[in-house]
């Protein structure tokens, strides 16, 4: 009513105006100078320091994995009935972390959420790295890793074939597809930026590398036309995968008979949880990137605010899912399900259940407050909390459900070993090592995409007012 | 607590690592040798079987039920 | 295929053209047509193998061939399993051995006074599996868990392989020369010679000892069985004036009263067989016996009781005498001279149960039997003898037996040794340095004997005290004979001696010869000569060896009960008041008196009650534990008479308040397996033979710290789930299915068809006592690895069959149920569809089978198995075996490497063996012809295996029985194992 009048009058109230996506004066040239310059400069001492830490962690992981290869899965705490523990927890955790990137770059792209442009590149990179961490586990967790390739249906002279009824096999396909499409999508977006870097660099070696990587990008109109089409297509493809990959991962559990696993709610619940964990990780890393790489003008508080809102909404979905689990346990009148749920809140591992609930449901509620969404302290607290909480959620699902299932005679307490922690630490090391390397060698912000959302780039009748 | 193992568990690490590294190397060497030096005599004869540590003798004077 | 270039001839007039270019006859096309194949190709230039043109030098194809071959061979080499040996065929095949065909020998062994007639399966000359002798009318093809596991003891790597004197290995001639010289000098000087051996149940051994005694008059022989129960021996001497062997005859028992007797524990296959026969009921109208149990600690027999009352062991005798008094008051006549006036009315058993018990015993009369636990005090045994005499019980056989030495006799011997009475001491298959309670005094005294010889298999604590060590044959390498109530049993070797060993009898025979006795060349000849004299007409010695026995009732006398002995015992029983905590020392399930402690199969077989492996924690009653604040696994210090032990405690539901129980046979200081496992409880043994195993005044205190228990079951309640069904006779008659009704299982898929066979199993929980013989039988048959205490504590034991034991009701005296749990071979198996590589799948005969070679080890199947019967090789467990233990492996069953899932296969190798034989004979498989190892090992015949496709088979008939149900049937997995509900037969109104 009033709004119509206001719009027609070209006088939108301040609060309803879409704020600018960058802060201060950003021109295409300054953007290039700011973002594409990183790989050209010498990294600061802190970067080396951070890399040393992450590499150490990665090395611990490699040693732990090597030890596991030598001794066998017995190096871990896994036992009967908890045949899966840290291995699959970590796998699901990292696949989950890998969800934010594709969601941001694909789904939000299709929804024309322009704020995504500044953070998409970084989030996508994190997706790739997280999936790399995730795929380690299916390989190392099998009893005979040297035969892990048997999980692929390849023609062989023994005429042996895989079992397509096994969700584990679906996993192999889902994760591989997700990884390859994410990688393609990421690389496609990188091409124009790499071309810019190729054109800017003075180093001969870099020039050769960038020339190869830029696959002959000249910025011609046909290039852009093809690029946009391919980007749109891959975005469409990736959108489906964002939803499918974690749904398929959840099938590992949902299609089994284990009480606490066998639930129809699992696919959407897992996808929501994955987005939740992924966004938390992105927020955590973005805050650091924003501060240390001086990108405050491009990654604005508004980005973080929106991200925090997504985290908050996902937290609510998680809360709903937890409640539904409890409701199902009660309403089904299934003694096994009921026992399993009570284990989460009161059992031996009840503490893990409460860590999950506190970190995933209770703490994020602080984000209802605008101040909290604008405060580093609160958003980092929430993000770290969610990361811990989501890891423990998988612990709850896997270990608590398995350690007490149908026959009480087989019930047993699970205890992880140092090797378990070593492998977990190692994947964090690998992940952050890759993040650090990425931040130094490739443009962390998709300059071409951000150029499209610069105030100057938008043919807008408000444009003049802003600069006035 | 006594360990069941009278000897510490023999870790196959050395066996496996050696086989993994040396196997392809030696075989590759031999494969190339076959191609490039056709005059070379075939490999060594197979090693003698190791002597059984315990010889198993059937019982004397015992009468079996069936078998 | 050989490709030859067709001779085209001139191209000027092509009749057919292949391309337009060819048609228009361009020069290029002519060239191309001519050179369609390779330019230099001419006749003879083709490779004969592939039909491909030969190239000069190293071709691409050759390169790839080599790379492929190299990679394949490299991969094969890299995947090499260690311990891979060379298979060498026989150069001279022994006549008896056909490679690939098993030989079976009848033989026998004993444990104390109990004799186990067995059938030994050998493969390529190696004994690999033991079952009971099916010809024996008593054991009917069954044997005990420890006998089953004894095959591993044959291959014990710690066995002494040659004689040794003062640490020096020497030949037999020299070794025996030393022994004989010592004996000769003893004979010359007239000094005594001490010979300590186990129980003498062999007539030939007895004769041999008599021969030796004749040649060496100063020989003093002690038959020492440290856990046979000195109380029983004392009571026998009092009640019958001589040693007796008491054997239950449960087939004749309608009412059984157990005073702490554990006759269902698995070591008595005859009792278990009779028990099973009376419990496998088809309908509620069938006869069933009733078992009353009064006991302190919870025994396996107690868990199977229809009615059980926890009673402190020192009060058992008073209760039993009160029962006799009450029965006498009700008109049952007392034996002459019986005086029960000292006995007051009892207060231990609740009034209602008491009147029911009295009624039951009186009503059953001759078909009632009272059995007393070997470890119980002498008075309790005397009371049991009295009650049996009063009832005129036919359900027990009391036979005169060779006397056993008690602790008192050992103490006397110690004194004698200390005083220098003995010139020589020989220890034959006994270990008093470990089993005698005052071990240090023993060792000190023994050191004063100038010549000490030891005959045994594995150097033990006693061997460490002896100068001359003579390695003895395992019984599977030995000759012998035994007398049992229903047949005389023969022992014959099933393998030539593995090492330079001799059997003890041969050593003594040689000694007797050296001392001037005229006797046979060797024990085999001695035995044969004796038997040829006494064999029934028409039976040859060879036939007796073939059968393993000579049937015929044993003619040992049944001594009469002496009523006059009662008065003193009754007085003592009435005065016996509990004082402090009462410690009951019982033989360990795995170790017995410690002689089996070096057997890793037994160490890892869970105790049937506590489910402990590799340890002997002290069992504390729930009430006492609560009062003292003791929790499972807490270290406690147990002190008695100045001896203090620090050991972990477990809470034992059903154990009488004020009673603590501890297993003997642990805490050995020798033996690669046995060393340091558990705590040695022998120092707590009393020196009063009347009550050596039941000690008053023990003190228990928390000692700080907690032990991670190597226990295979840590949760003991069923949580109200429908897992083990237990019915009273009344319920069995009226609602055998209770409130359960078979769930309707709907599937979208068509059921799998089983064209020829559909294997299935029925387990009767009413007959199963939980004795765990099946566990050991399976371990032996299927090469199940042993993983050790640390791995068990982590839940990684590998047993393919386990016995689940649940407590129900109040913890002070719970109802206990046992359930053998193994792969259920579900038709709709949850494990099968989750395996990504199809390593586990369903056979057309209904077996859920594992392809170990295909298994990658995702362990998903383990997660999805509702019964949790899948076992994963978390580590290279097979490498835990030390040579020559691997000789005990069954060659029919694959040894599983690390990273592979395994589980029960329904003994598929046995199924196939029978199938092949039946096919060879051109006949159908008979019902009952295929036995799984667990079924063959089950002494109470609770397990039945067979073809469900055959409507006349035993399984097919049992699956529809009124007690039949399937565990977790509602999950829709369609298990192939049907359980028959447990039955309890409590007295009316209880």
UniProtKB/TrEMBL annotation, chain A:
It comes from the Bacteria. Pfam families: NrfD. The keyword Membrane applies. Its main location: membrane. It is found in: Cell membrane. Coiled coil: none annotated. InterPro entries: NrfD-like. It is a multi-pass membrane protein. Keywords: Cell membrane, Membrane, Transmembrane, Transmembrane helix. The chain crosses the membrane at residues 47-70, 82-111, 123-148, 168-190, 230-249, 269-289, 310-331, 351-369, 376-401, 421-442. The keyword Membrane applies. Belongs to the NrfD family. This is Polysulfide reductase chain C. It comes from Geothrix limicola. The lineage of its organism: Bacteria, Pseudomonadati, Acidobacteriota, Holophagae, Holophagales.
UniProtKB/TrEMBL annotation, chain B:
Residues 37-67 are annotated as: Disordered. This is Uncharacterized protein. Residues 58-67 have a biased composition (Basic and acidic residues). It comes from Geothrix limicola. It comes from the Bacteria.
TrEMBL record, chain C:
It comes from the Bacteria. Residues 759-789, 814-845 form the 4Fe-4S ferredoxin-type domain. Pfam families: Fer4_7 (PF12838). InterPro entries: 4Fe4S_Fe-S-bd, Asp_de-COase-like_dom_sf, TAT_var_transloc_signal_dom. This is Molybdopterin oxidoreductase. Gene3D superfamilies: 2.40.40.20, 3.30.70.20, 3.40.50.740, ADC-like domains (2.20.25.90), Dimethylsulfoxide Reductase, domain 2 (3.40.228.10), Formate dehydrogenase/DMSO reductase (3.30.2070.10). PROSITE patterns: 4FE4S_FER_2. NCBIfam families: MoCo_extend_TAT.
